[in-house]
Fold:
Amino acid sequence: MEIINEFRLTVDSKSINEAFCRGVTACFAAQLDPTIEELADIKTAVSEAVTNAIVHGYGERCGKIYIDGIIDSSNNIVIKIGDKGRGIENIQLARSRYIQRVTENARDSVLP
Structure:
């Protein structure tokens, strides 16, 4: 696919920048004329990812958060959010706990 438009943003991992990142990404996505619900989903996903980088990636220290966005010739939007924080010590354990929680939640939500 051909890239039609793109942006790159780097901000400090400060909570004040979470709303800024959400706004920039929403403005970028607006060129695709999304529904209100689609735009809200994008903003929520960006907020969660940026907050995760701030809280879990860097904790008390300040680092950088990187956001890349592209729109391709099929009008797909891809937003990548990353950091160079401390990461997850044991990714396999974290994934197994996540899968366990999802399974338990699914089992709890099944109606009799």
